[in-house]
Here is the input.
Amino acid sequence: MRAVVMDRLGGPEVLRVQEVAEPVPGPGEVLVAVAYAGITFVETQVRAGTGPAAGQAPPLPRIPGNGVGGRVLVVGPRVDPGLAGTTVVTTTGGAGGYAELAVARAEDLTPVPAGVPLRDAVALLADGRTAVLVHRQAGVRPGEWVLVEAAGGGVGSLLVQLAAASGAKVIGAARGRAKAGLVTSLGALACVDYSVPGWERAVVERTGGVDVVFDGVGGEVGAQGMLAVRPGGRASLYGMASGSWTEPAAHVTLVPRSVPAPAEIRALAEEALAHAAAGRLRPVVGQTYPLAEAAEAHRAIEARATTGKTLLIP
Ligand SMILES: NC(=O)c1ccc[n+]([C@@H]2O[C@H](COP(=O)([O-])OP(=O)(O)OC[C@H]3O[C@@H](n4cnc5c(N)ncnc54)[C@H](OP(=O)(O)O)[C@@H]3O)[C@@H](O)[C@H]2O)c1
Here is the structure.
């Protein structure tokens, strides 16, 4: 089968498509014919050896990719044979997703609800569970002002929708006009461009200081976002696309972060898919790339040239 293999850390060029042996599902596992493989931002950082896991090099060589959707082709020993032929989305346990075939644990499989296209389900798998989790942890209430950074990105575009559906007044922050248009189309009352100096003051002028900030960017943007929070407001710091975490600020309460157990992770994904089936959440698949162009996809994500979710099509 064809798969994207990296045998060293480095730039996007380390992602190369190769012929490799087909994986064989072991006990409790299945083999999935991958129709879509999700790319998450953190995978660009793992590839480069930067980000939250910098200094913990993954085993190499490696097929990246932690989320796929497709049809179950083969079931391994001690797996319900009835799963064969079903269409599912699933984690791959951390690696192996950028490939024509991927192995997953049967217990990780999530059925795709009726009415949700497979590509939307794959787009929601990681970003949806993260957005549902951090939205819930922040306890967004009706009438609150909520600032979402990187609001045109994968998780951000879902947070905008979840916060708006909670009755909050959402203000997005992103770079450039195209992303601003997307963010307001998803339910934000406004979207500020955080590449314009003083953007956080514009947020305060509009809102009087937000009640909640969702920060997946960190660094300078994260620090500026903290200044847009009213005293006693809350900050959910869930990512560091800039390369560094946001420093806590004395006037803001940090929303505690917890790492969910595997069963909870699957339940969160199921919840995101149920929202999609009910028409409450619309994943934005901004771009797709053929498997052979995985390096190009990573390049675009790093260049901040993508909107919403990026998927690979084997
Ligand atoms: N996806 C998940 O399930 C998940 C889980 C846990 C944590 N996270 C974290 O959440 C954050 C967002 O993840 P995502 O997968 O949804 O990614 P994403 O939002 O699709 O992409 C990252 C976004 O961050 C913004 N950004 C700001 N500064 C940047 C910089 N210096 N370099 C690159 N991008 C920059 C870009 O938007 P602008 O151009 O508008 O600034 C870009 O679109 C990441 O930090 C990620 O590690 C994600």
Observations:
- Residues 40-42, 126-127, 130, 150, 152-156, 174-175, 179, 216-217, 221, 238-242, 304, 306 surround NAP (CB under 6 Å).
- The chain is about 30% helix and 25% strand.
- The longest strand covers residues 29-39.
- The mean pLDDT is 97.
